[in-house]
Request: fold
Amino acid sequence: MNFYKYHGLGNDYIVLDPQEFAEEITGGYIRRICHRNCGIGSDGILFGPLPDKSGVPALRIFNPDGSEAEKSGNGLRIFARYLYDSGRVSQEPFLIATRGGTVTARVLESGRSVSVEMGNVSFESTQIPVSGAKREVINETLKAGDETLTFCAATIGNPHCVIIKSEISADQTRRLGPRIETHPLFPNRTNVQFVKIMDKGNIAVQIWERGAGYTLASGSSASAAAAVARRLDLCSRDITVHMPGGELDIRIGNDYSISMTGPVTRIAEGRMHPELLEQPETE
Reply:
């Protein structure tokens, strides 16, 4: 069973092609493969391309805990690079279907960089979703442990909770992220971003990813954070998002449409031994 491993700014994914993976994909298999000590190790699984009724290559995205994500910006860039590397697409724009919507991708620099039209960000509670009456979720408050935090919520096909702070850190994100991810306000759980405004064209972001934990970079998180910064009139339409793993360029269009461009690195390819999938799960 072949696998292909890539990373986007330190956010690493394993691509499993259904044509080469003989087993039915399950949460147990995902957890074993993603395990950093007992498996190959990754921040998630990209399972595709799958046939789509429209002829568009479809992608399923799995978190390392076995749950399924609607959309992932880094995952989409990586999958686009995989399609290019395997000869399925050229450097012309092409479509990818996800649970969070269909996006347009374009491979640049012979695969070293990929641009994705991520879709439109919405701040509307029923679309994210956020509990309570239908509304734009802007500058509301929630309790995380003993702390009261002001947040905005957004979706770009998957849920995000964005918190603007004067200072941000990995320790803060690791401490508060899991409390916010599972907060009752978010019935489907949520991704969490702590954001520092650097200037009109730059923001710094620390990320707690739903189902994955502390993450060096995330394309959908960068998109949501940039959209919130723009919605609050703290930044311009062109924003460089600085994350621990590196930078993404975000361009915000009309109706908060998002274009994201960033690097992809090919790490390895190989074959999984069946023994990996047979072993008992390890915490």
